[in-house]
Amino acid sequence: MLERELTISNRLGLHARATAKLVQVLAPFRCNATLAAKGREVNAKSIMGVMLLAAGQGTPVIVRIDGEDEAAAMDAVASLFERRFDEDS
């Protein structure tokens, strides 16, 4: 299992579009993924679950990924966070 803390840096936080991108990035991987923030842990492959976090800009999030392609999945998630969900120019 891999675990990494990432900070939400895009201006709007984990709103609908950013959440959909996260779920799409994780969809092809054969692993389980969770996000933990503000005392909650949710399935990172579930749009509704991630939306329930209501994580805004600056919120630290723990990403946990467990499965056969966990390293590639973590790299993809970290890259998405680093690119600010492709929203900020």
TrEMBL record:
GO terms for cellular component: cytoplasm. It comes from the Bacteria. Residues 1-88 form the HPr domain. Signal peptide: none annotated. Gene3D superfamilies: HPr-like (3.30.1340.10). The keyword RNA-binding does not apply. The keyword Cytoplasm applies. PROSITE patterns: PTS_HPR_DOM (PS51350), PTS_HPR_HIS (PS00369), PTS_HPR_SER (PS00589). InterPro entries: HPr, HPr-like, HPr-like_sf, PTS_HPr_His_P_site, PTS_HPr_Ser_P_site. It is found in: Cytoplasm. Keywords: Cytoplasm, Phosphotransferase system. GO terms for biological process: phosphoenolpyruvate-dependent sugar phosphotransferase system. Pfam families: PTS-HPr. Belongs to the HPr family. NCBIfam families: PTS_HPr_family. This is HPr family phosphocarrier protein. The lineage of its organism: Bacteria, Pseudomonadati, Pseudomonadota, Gammaproteobacteria, Lysobacterales.
